[in-house]
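Ticket #396: bound-state structure for iron/sulfur cluster.
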Amino acid sequence: MRLVVASGKGGTGKTTVAVNLAKSWGSPVQLLDCDVEAPNTRLFLGGTMLESQVVTISVPEVNEALCNGCGECSRFCEYSAMACVAGKAMVFVSMCHSCGGCSLVCPTGAISEVESRIGTIVTSSFGKTTLLEGILDVGSTMAPQLIRRLKSLVKSGVPAILDSPPGTSCPVVTTMKGADFVILVTEPTPFGLHDLTLAVATTRELGLPFGVVVNRLGIGDDRVHSYCATEHIQVLLEIPDDRRIAEAYSRGELMVDVLPEYAGLFAGLRRELEKR
Amino acid sequence: MKIAFTTTGDSPDSPLDPRFGRATGFLVYDTDKDAFEAFSNNQNLNAVQGAGIQAAQNLASLGVEALVTGHCGPKAFTVLSRAGIKVYNTGLATVSGALNAFRNGELTAAESADSESHWV
Ligand code: SF4
Ligand code: SF4
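RESOLUTION: The complex was predicted; output attached.
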């Protein structure tokens, strides 16, 4: 089973839900931090680092001695990662999507492919959970590529929980693709509802089944609930706005470890998800 | 010498467009002919990425030697300087105003990009 935990914006408790769900799973589970521009799951967990691997993509390099300035490469490149001025081609590595096309269309063989670093993937373990965390290099725009690499490391047969980046942009879509189920985390406030409707639209467009987790129940109004009722969206879990959760968090503890009633709630969520 | 101005219109009295890559269009002034020619930047307006790079390449192929605009990002600036095109940033309101300032030597060529990339 592959679950994605997402939210229309940051700060709704998405990572909290992902981490507590993983921790309360009981059997081995893989947790993927796909928020590669700001990974923070490991902060919640500690754990032992097992491995760190560098991720690279292939990008073109121009041999100026062979380049005749014909401009075929830059006309071909859909991503404007190639420009040809003053009789020579130039590459903008940070915009290249590694399609390999420019080296194919170059008539003089001036373009070869070299490896360019985009980030790292750190594997760590805590208890029965294996955490795979993608960390995009500062300045790289290759978040979707790194997320795809991260997803390719998921072992089949072991449930995977993917902590998505916030929002509804390209990296979120990359994270959600192929998921069996999406959990959308929201807060019961007007802003929460607004961002939830965007996330629902994205999820529906991808044709994925999904349900909602309402975090910090009690801080706002009931509009999220009436929206879910009208749209026939299942509310899977409600987490109250409870001081003790924040206190546990500030001590670096998870609610499912120190507050038995929440361990029960998350066990219920897990059973609900396993029915699917 | 050809000088390009970013603009939202098609005459010298039109406003100077502060954007470069996503400018509505360009007015290219030819000092030899004392005449303006208008070019659209339509295909770049909605580019997903790299609008500045494309626009810079287009100016290079038109044989432009100077660009007067509001702001120019780092990637476009790299292409422009590689093509030998000098960049002049100004906040002046109209193309004709900017051309006068350019003629009177009131604008100085930028040493580097003056705005952040949209992608990092
Ligand atoms: S590999 Fe593809 S995306 Fe990269 S520069 Fe070449 S054509 Fe553009
Ligand atoms: S296609 Fe090859 S020869 Fe032509 S400009 Fe690009 S690198 Fe140079």
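RESOLUTION NOTES: The interface with chain B takes residues 74, 79-81, 83-86, 88, 90, 92, 94-95, 139, 141 of chain A (CB under 8 Å).
TICKET STATUS: resolved
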